[in-house]
């Protein structure tokens, strides 16, 4: 944490800007709130920034996430972090029947909520578990799904911070 706290603002954002997918604004705001004693304190600060950002900014954050087995995955343009996370359960290489099912869920989420279905893949051991999570939430109202999706993003951030910061 001492090394992270000692970085310039630009370096801090360079290191942590991808923790929230395509949303470096979270790291930019957190940079000005240093020093952080622990990784948990940094994570909490970032969560507070998101929570205080307002509904439209939260929606932007959610829209920045890629769809599972979506265009970015097919084109090979996912972030390094998302590639690893989706690849963990081979979501980037689904068989035809599962790919069709995932695309239907992607379409549903985009039409119903205006953002992708977001699941912290590292909390799941199987593709079927990811499907079950998306199915469980598919009929949420928009407010409930924003809350669920932000919670999933926070799990993703937790794992990404663990990857970046030892201890």
Furnish the topology, listing elements before pairings.
Elements: H1 2-6, H2 9-16, H3 25-31, H4 39-51, H5 55-63, H6 71-75, H7 80-88, H8 96-113, H9 127-137, H10 142-164
Description:
The structure is a single chain. With 167 residues, the chain is mainly alpha-helical. It has 2 domains: 2-60; 65-152, Oxo-4-hydroxy-4-carboxy-5-ureidoimidazoline decarboxylase (UraD-like, Orthogonal Bundle), CATH 1.10.3330.10. The chain is built from 10 helices and no strands. Helix 2 (9-16) crosses helix 3 (25-31) and helix 3 (25-31) crosses helix 4 (39-51). It is globular. 27% of the residues are buried.
Brief overview, please?
The protein has about 170 residues and is mostly helical. The chain has helices at about 1-5, 10-15, 25-30, 40-50, 55-65, 70-75, 80-90, 95-115, 125-135, 140-165. It is globular and about 50 Å long.
Largest sheet properties? none
CATH 4th-level superfamily of the largest domain:
Oxo-4-hydroxy-4-carboxy-5-ureidoimidazoline decarboxylase
Number of helices: 10
From the 3D coordinates, which CATH architecture of the largest domain would you assign? Orthogonal Bundle
Please tell me how large the radius of gyration is: 16 Å
Strand content: under 5%
SS elements, strand count: 0
> Helical content, roughly?
55-70%
- N- to C-terminal separation? 9 Å
String of helices and strands: HHHHHHHHHH
Count of spatially separate domains = 2
The overall pLDDT average reads: 94
Bulk shape:
globular
Class based on secondary structure composition and strand pairing = mainly alpha
Low-confidence stretches are none
């Amino acid at each position: 944490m001492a090394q992270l706290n000692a970085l310039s603002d630009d370096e801090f954002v360079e290191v942590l800007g991808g923790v929230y997918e395509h949303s470096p604004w979270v790291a930019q705001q957190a940079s000005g709130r240093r020093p952080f004693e622990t990784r948990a304190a940094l994570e909490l600060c970032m969560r507070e920034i998101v929570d205080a950002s307002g509904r439209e900014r939260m929606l932007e954050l959610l829209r920045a996430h890629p769809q599972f087995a979506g265009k970015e995955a097919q084109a090979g343009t996912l972030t390094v972090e998302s590639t690893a996370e989706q690849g963990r359960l081979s979501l980037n290489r689904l068989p035809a029947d599962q790919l069709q099912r995932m695309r239907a869920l992607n379409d549903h989420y985009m039409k119903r909520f205006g953002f992708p279905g977001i699941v912290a893949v590292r909390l799941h051991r199987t593709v079927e578990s990811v499907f079950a999570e998306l199915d469980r939430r598919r009929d949420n109202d928009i407010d409930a799904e924003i809350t669920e999706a932000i919670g999933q993003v926070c799990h993703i951030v937790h794992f990404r911070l663990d990857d970046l910061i030892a201890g």
